[in-house]
Amino acid sequence: MSKAHFGLIGLGVMGENLVLNAERNGFSSVVYNRTYSKTEEFLDGRGAGRRIQGAKDLQDFVEKLERPRRILMMIKAGSAIDAVIEKISPYLEDGDLLIDGGNSEFRDTERRVEQLEQKSFGFLGMGISGGSKGALEGPSMMPGGTKSSYDAIEELVSKMSAQVEDGPCVTYIGPGGSGHFVKTVHNGIEYGIEQILAEAYDLMRRVGGLNGSEMADVMARWNNSEELCSYLVEITEGCLRYKDPKDGSDLVERIMDKAGQKGTGLWTVVSALELGAPVPTIYAALNARVMSSIKRQRVEAESILGKTVVRPFHMGSVEDGMAPLMDAVTLACIASYAQGIELLKIGSDQYKYNLQMPSIAQIWKGGCIIRSRLLSRIQSAYRDCPDLPNLFIDPWFSEQLTRRLPGLTAVVAGGVKSGIPLPCLSSTLDYINSYRTGRLPQNLVQAMRDCFGSHTYERVDIDGTFHTDWLD
Ligand code: NAP
After folding, report:
1. Residue 1 covered by a domain
2. What gap in Å lies between CA 183 and CA 125, rounded to an integer?
3. Whether 90 and 125 share a structural domain
4. Residue 190 falls in the annotated catalytic set
């Protein structure tokens, strides 16, 4: 049998679908999985009758590939990646290329790029978004590493990725760990939007008294608008409409209210704190998942501290798409993107990644979990003004802010009066109000720091650094 063009390690949900995608696009493949029975199962099942060969061990796998070898690892992030690199390296030759398509921490990728290139191998850290369906039909791909390594897979990934009107949803992101850095922030934005939609659901259900089908109708209306048309709103409609086959009730109400996480949201927030980038909406989403996980304590506290008493307030009607709630959700979604993009810009300067915001917005327009119509606006905003300090400063987004701020304010105020937690919506309101306040009260914080620790302060009226003995 002739040598295969492309090799895949790891037949989990993502790996299986990606190799089928590559084969459908004309690239013969060879697959390896640590547990060989999975390889056999795949070759007898979904992989049968295709130009996909299996390999029992890594030496056999490497020998079945044409040179330079292009090998995509779709395995658990972390030490598994280092273990596979160590095991496969003795069989690789100069110029061969390893690609980590999992959700790896970008600093690990930075280290691996350096380590592998010293051995004359290429290494790319490629974030892949789109879930299992995206992996099969066309995901969004965010490859980072050396440009020559990217050039070796450009044809492959351009065909495998989702396609939008202005091209494939893949581009060379930049050097080192930039691809995984961008994927991490993508996931942080995703955390934000998911939590925002969960808060909207909570308000519609508890304040509005809507059932699953009515809430799904609201989502369908939102998904018809330029501002909220997105994959996440579309799937939220599907989840809210779904009935439990057991008794026809809304299945979502039967789901335990504890949200899991695998690390990328946490890494986004840690990076933001390290880099001094404000991401309050994204942080609130992460914290909301943490709060959700202490279920037993929350149930006990409800009986000790008293249940919140919901007071109805105006959120609009199903027919008008719950206009004030739509305002709130729109601004919070924009804030998630705005904060994520600011983090990318600060990270790009700090790590010398030279990230191009219009290209990143373009590759997020298709295939990925945060795809939305807003991304076309984001793409044009950064194309028109590459140094835009914040998305909300762009004329189209600032008009959205002015028009929708009363709705966001009313919804947060109503939620507060009802004791309904709205972490992302209220953080967004604080973020916007802080951002548009020329003078914040941190002058007093500086006075206190100088008072107890002689940390000094600057004055607004005289140049220089000052210290005062405040209590004398
Ligand atoms: P997964 O459950 O994260 O990983 C399963 C694969 O990893 C299996 O092939 C397993 O082999 C292999 N593996 C685990 N430890 C290993 C080790 N020490 N040495 C060699 N192989 C090892 O699979 P997944 O959901 O397809 O995800 C793959 C990667 O893509 C992950 O990094 C994930 O975070 C990322 N990702 C997932 C999604 C998604 O929607 N699922 C989306 C984007 C990115 P065995 O069969 O032998 O156990």
Report:
1. no
2. 10
3. yes
4. yes
